[in-house]
Amino acid sequence: MGQAIVVKVGGSAGIDYDAVCADVAGLVAEGRRVVLVHGGSAETNRVAEALGHPPQFVTSESGFQSRRTDRQTMEIFTMVYCGKMNKMIVGKLQALGVNAIGLSGLDGRLLRGPRKKAIRAVIDGKRISIRDDLSGKVEKVNSDLLTLLMDAGYTPVMSPPALSYENEAINVDGDRAAAAIAQALAAEALVLLSNVPGLLRDFPDESSLVPRVDVARAEEAMALAQGRMKVKVLGAVEAVQAGVGRVVLADARVEQPVRKALAGHGTTVQ
Amino acid sequence: MGQAIVVKVGGSAGIDYDAVCADVAGLVAEGRRVVLVHGGSAETNRVAEALGHPPQFVTSESGFQSRRTDRQTMEIFTMVYCGKMNKMIVGKLQALGVNAIGLSGLDGRLLRGPRKKAIRAVIDGKRISIRDDLSGKVEKVNSDLLTLLMDAGYTPVMSPPALSYENEAINVDGDRAAAAIAQALAAEALVLLSNVPGLLRDFPDESSLVPRVDVARAEEAMALAQGRMKVKVLGAVEAVQAGVGRVVLADARVEQPVRKALAGHGTTVQ
Predict the structure, then answer these.
(1) A239-268 in b/e burial notation, b at 16+ Cβ within 10 A?
(2) Which in A26, A97, A250, B95 has the greatest CB count within 10 A?
């Protein structure tokens, strides 16, 4: 068995899950080990609206945007990520002959880390501190469980929430969770798929794709990145520095998105 | 490691999940192997109402009631069972020091069986046939996966849906799924907890509890059973006939419900 490939597929509108699952199934059929990490943000927004608890987002002082996760939002988040999205993907993979197992960060303590004591946010130009937010970050990954399952022929399909050190479900960034999983498995590659073709020099001009980022010159890439792409580039650089072979930021909206990313389509961080 | 105990806790109103989880945690701390199977019917009804797709139930010609499971209902069912309920229970167990792993019947092909081609139902006295229902029954359990996880110290927390032979998510009866799991593991005991104290001679008079049912005289018990209890008694008898040590139908609304059931409180089928 070779090293694992960790594939993260975002939860934004326009993602072609059928193409991602078909591509993963092809790789698994060739004997590759794949861990698939998924999001669910667009669907969480939709269900939260339908249940009368519309989504809210906060922007940190350093410019990162994140979901405001109060207790009711965490319930909806868990329903959508662990119920609807996770089992939809597991079902698609099963239909393609892949013996997938869906797991959240709570299951088997797969993803653990600290809950943020407070999130500092900027709302209407004012700095505020939110103390009841159920969010945090991943510091530890139970790679033993992932290896146990992959050794037995199963393909893990994972999503947030993670489990805080105080045993609460916490919302964590999916891209950085995938990076932590790739690090823990010393993965050959981490592929971060979303609805853009990679890092763009002139966002949103898709012809301005940056094909390669050298981790030694990461500041330049970070300066180019807009919005969500900042977190992806940051996670990619951290992952490579921690021993992941390479990270590819690539387009989920195409046929064979994983193979194309592994072949160098997108932005390769190395 | 001894034989497993399979505990099924219903999804009706009034169930004390904290008491069930604390009791399971105590057994696991003593080195017992426990598989916890859960329901989620009351919460599914609530969420389905909130999402504008109210629950419907159909009664079969033989008098069994079941949830009408069209595609949208299956999506809601999966959100609630695999997302909300499953991760709520996994979170409670993790907080009690149990390394729980939540799994549906889709994951690792844990629960497989045929989808019903049609459900014959009686509505307003008329016999009708419903062909698009996503329901079926469990015929195969992947006990290898459960054993792999329990050998490594994990406690499986399971729920429907199951995976049909055509790889669709199908709604299956939770009590009979638990019975199939207990059979596959040759469990020492199967404990079916719900919001009644067991089989009642004079339903709903709780003082008329039937303490023991001999499988050789199952017809008498079946004749006494009302509504949902028919399925429980049927599943219990089948399980004992297939090699499960004993089945106890017991009350989930008390402290230490599992230990009390194992000590003989409730209706023991043997």
Answers:
(1) bbeeebebbbbbbbbbebbbebbbeebbbb
(2) A250
CATH of the domain at B107: 3.40.1160.10
Residue of A nearest to B75 (CA): A84
Q: Which residue is closest to A48 within chain B, CA to CA? A: B51
Domain residues for the domain of B161 are: 4-52+70-112+137-269
pLDDT digits (tens, 9 = 90+) for A84-108: 999 999 999 999 999 999 999 999 9
Tokens, residue A63: 């410019």
Of B79, B86, B167, the CB nearest to A91: B167
Element (DSSP H or E) covering residue B164:
strand B162-164
Q: CA–CA separation, A256 vs A224, rounded Å? A: 27
pLDDT in tens, B95-136: 999 999 999 999 999 999 999 988 888 877 888 888 889 999
Q: CB distance B91–A152 less than 8 Å?
A: no
Number of domains in chain B: 1
Q: Is residue A128 part of a domain?
A: no
Q: Is residue A64 part of a domain?
A: no
Size of interface A-B (CB pairs under 8 A): 118
Give the tens place of pLDDT for each residue, A160-198.
999 999 999 999 999 999 999 999 999 999 999 998 899
CB-count exposure of residue B85 (10 Å: 0-12, 13-18, 19+)? buried
B154 in contact with A, Cβ within 8 Å = yes
Q: What is the pLDDT of residue B254?
A: 92
Q: Whole-model pTM above 0.90?
A: yes
| A122 part of a folded domain | no
DSSP 3-state of B263: coil
Provide the 8-state DSSP code for B116: P
Cβ contacts of A99 on chain B, cutoff 8 Å: 108-109
pLDDT tier at A119, thresholds 50, 70, 90: confident
Confidence of residue A1 (pLDDT cuts 50, 70, 90): low
In this model, does residue B2 exceed pLDDT 60? yes
* Cα torsion angle, A116, A122, A128, A132, sign: negative
Chain B interface, mutation test: which of A28, A79, A93, A147, most B Cβ atoms within 10 Å?
A79
Reported as a single tens digit per residue, the pLDDT across B10-22 is: 888 888 899 999 9
